[in-house]
Amino acid sequence: MGLDRFIEDDESSSDSSSSSSNNTTTDTPRDDGGDTQDNIESTDMEFYGSGNADVGVNPMKRKGAMSNFTTAQLAKDTDGTIEIDRDNIKFHAPIFPIITPDDRYDNSERYQLKSTNDKVKASWDGRVVSCVSSELTKLGMLNKEFIMFTVGAHSKKIAMERVKDIMGDGLDGHTQVYVNFFGDAMFMRDMAQANEEYRHDETVDVDQIGSRVVKKNMLNVGLNQED
After folding, report:
1. What burial letters (b/e) apply to 84-96, b meaning 16+ CB within 10 Å?
2. Mean pLDDT of all residues in the chain?
3. I need a labelling partner for 146 at 20 to 30 A (CA). Which of 37, 41, 64, 111 fits?
4. pLDDT tens for residues 83-118?
5. How confident is the model at residue 7 (pLDDT cuts 50, 70, 90)?
């Protein structure tokens, strides 16, 4: 079912306070000598979050494409930043969507996630993501489950408040919207390697992948260990 009924917001709720904006962007490429890059070098930019990991578990070691890249090195090759002021579970996933009213993102370009929350920085702050798809469609063509996941709310009232924060007022099923999908650059290549390395006949070994790649910090800690 499309969003035609889902976006029929109750006007009586218009006096309620709106939620904060889900995300804003800056499309201008960063200057490698600027303050943002200096901050990258001085902070913990783990792809899989921060904190201690069980180094007793043997992680997968990167081989092949992008094996020697660090987060800071990858960040120097980005085409802009995606500024986000509130944490959302989707940003912790390897692939996630962002909806926008315009075509501010380009297929194949890389962007760096930047948390603008001064109180707490999420673990995805500084992560480099690739835009894998940016497509124009109509709001009524999107199903409500997708919108709930995108804005991080299962309540119709809250979800539509957040959609309005992004898209503006006067929404209906014919409102044009860009659906942008992003993938964690290093995580995608790591999973590609794991798909070849951890197999039993025709099936992948999800236990091996879970302990050596997906488990928080495992791959990064393994790369940082002294020989």
Report:
1. bebbbebbbeeeb
2. 78
3. 111
4. 999 999 999 888 999 999 999 999 989 999 999 988
5. low
Residue 217 DSSP class: T
Contact between 98 and 129 under an 8 Å Cβ cutoff? The reply is no
- At 88, list the tokens: 């959302």
Q: Order the strands of the 24-26 sheet from edge to edge.
A: 24-26, 81-84, 110-115, 128-138, 176-184, 95-100
Task: Determine the Cα–Cα distance for residues 209 and 97; give it in Å rounded to an integer.
Answer: 24
- DSSP assignment of 145-159, as one string? HHHHHHHT--SHHHH
Give the other-Cβ count within 10 Å of 9's Cβ: 17
List of long-range contacts for 6-15, beta carbons under 8 Å, 24+ apart: 6/144, 6/147, 6/156, 6/159, 6/160, 7/139, 7/140, 7/160, 7/163, 7/171, 7/172, 7/173, 9/156, 9/157, 9/160, 9/164, 9/171, 10/157, 13/157
DSSP state of 33: T
Name the CATH architecture for the domain at 27-224: Roll (3.10)
Q: What is the value of pTM for the model shown?
A: 0.72
Cβ-proximal residues to 13 (8 Å cutoff; 6+ apart), any chain = 157
118's CB contacts (< 8 A; 6+ apart) are none
Specify whether the CB–CB gap between 165 and 85 falls below 8 A.
Answer: no
Rounded to 5°, the CA angle 28-34-36 comes to 80
Q: Where are the domains of the chain?
A: 27-224
